[in-house]
């Protein structure tokens, strides 16, 4: 389950930032997670619940922004929503698609005490 290692990395990153600013706790953590990032959202939520226990984030509010997938066809130029990584272009059926958004997995902001 790679979601647990992702959750642990997120906690480590937030704690590192808080410590570097001589803070005692993280109040809020804001994440952006793309639907095409290869992360099972429910599993990541469960992993984060475990990872924050005993950490500086134990009482932090975790705000998740889910980013829908979007791609553009490199053959016909059609911009369209994507539900999965290998979604064909709805206009021409081509699989030559450039993903525009939806692969994000980042910490957007950290609010510390």
Description:
Helix content is 27%, strand content 34%. The protein has 2 helices and 6 strands; from the N terminus they run H-E-H-E-E-E-E-E.
Number of strands: 6
Helix content: 25-40%
Low-confidence stretches: none
What is the percentage of strand-forming residues?
25-35%
Would you list the SSEs in sequence order as H and E?
HEHEEEEE
Overall body shape? elongated
What labels describe this entry?
about 25% helix, alpha+beta, three-stranded antiparallel beta sheet, about 110 residues, 2 helices
Put the structure in a nutshell.
The chain has 113 residues and is of the alpha+beta class.
Secondary structure topology:
Elements: H1 2-20, E1 26-34, H2 41-51, E2 61-67, E3 69-73, E4 79-82, E5 97-101, E6 105-112
Parallel strand pairs: 1-2
Antiparallel strand pairs: 1-6, 3-4, 3-5
Helix pairs in contact: 1-2
């Amino acid at each position: 389950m790679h979601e647990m290692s992702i959750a642990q990395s997120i906690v480590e990153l937030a704690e590192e930032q808080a410590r570097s600013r001589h803070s005692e706790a993280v109040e809020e953590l804001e994440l952006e997670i793309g639907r095409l990032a290869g992360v099972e959202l429910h599993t990541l939520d469960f992993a984060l619940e475990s990872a924050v226990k005993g950490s500086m984030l134990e009482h932090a509010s975790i705000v998740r922004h889910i980013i829908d997938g979007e791609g553009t066809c490199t053959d016909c130029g059609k911009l369209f929503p994507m539900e999965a990584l290998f979604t064909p272009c709805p206009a021409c059926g081509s699989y030559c698609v450039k993903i525009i958004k939806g692969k994000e997995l980042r910490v957007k902001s950290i609010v510390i005490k």
